[in-house]
């Protein structure tokens, strides 16, 4: 068993070696294509006669290996379970190994085309493009993840509006109790781009997006967008989310509805206050001070960012929007706001901002501390960590000291209001000053592109 570790930072290598596998390590992540090149060059160097490739993401059944080898030994040079897949899952004989070794391939589709060009004997799939050509946008494979929970009235409208240049639509039925799952399955039968994914029971929108991201990476998608199944996000604006990523200006685009007077007008004062508070807390936690609308589910992300941020353990509920931003900032990825209007119809928001802010605040605090530790201590160092530390301590001393001073004066009657009060106020003001400088340094780091991707 040969395992190619593509720059993992977890225990992948240790586990594979403990199970007896031969491990070839990449010091840095080279992507799926780099891993394929290592596999075929290593297999050729070892004199391998038969090679079976199976991805490590759990999408393929190891029980298929015997069937693949059986077809290969029936006189074939390569066996592909499916055409049009980015995955190289399949079996390869000596002639196929030699052909792929001498070429630059990055997906299973590339390999399928290559072996046909070499007139090798192939089983299981016809050459991609012989009858149809997969959609592209500016030469890139685009996918849209559509999480949906009880959206039977709106999911059809969303799927109908997906642009023709989208290669895959991962429609995730997140444990719906209505006909959402049936409608998605019906669309999948009529449109080969639609890939139905079903959760049971409901796991939350974050878990739905994680499932979509996992399939997109497995299928070799270049840019993955997310678009909620409630119909609020107009698909005609999708290209605006894709262009900055394809042009190399950023790796993540985030929708901004706050420029829409209709959107602001539909918000109650309480919800507007809650949204503003949550936005401010997310800016502090994520370090993206220019970000405008963090609770917006209309986004797009590059493949290299997905491969870097370890998204599979993201927060599974609505807080995933905030958690994802923190993970992107830790790795220094640039983001860009994309203005778009909000569409309204019969959809209803399920977010209760009072309880939601309290619940997400704990997540934001934990992710904020993780970001400081990873980005400004472990991966690099920046003195703003000390400013945040001293600022928090001094501010806390000032608040506690002020409370004690008032207790001494009002309850016990001690004449200490001026001295103790002045010292408490001084500590509090110094703490606020330290925190302000810490935030300023964080803003400067964002503008200077303080990253290493």
From TrEMBL:
**Any signal peptide, and if so, which residues?**
none
Q: Does the keyword Transit peptide apply?
A: no
In the UniProt record, does the keyword Thylakoid occur?
no
The residues covered by the Glycosyltransferase 2-like domain are 1-91, 144-308
Alphabetically list the UniProt keywords: Membrane, Transferase, Transmembrane, Transmembrane helix
For this protein, the record's Gene3D superfamilies field holds:
Spore Coat Polysaccharide Biosynthesis Protein SpsA, Chain A
Name the InterPro entries for this protein: Glyco_trans_2-like, Glycosyltransferase_2, Nucleotide-diphossugar_trans
Pfam family of this protein, just one? Glycos_transf_2
Q: Name one GO molecular function term.
A: transferase activity
State the superkingdom. Archaea
Q: Transmembrane segments in this chain: where?
A: 376-404, 416-441
Q: What is this protein called?
A: Glycosyltransferase involved in cell wall bisynthesis
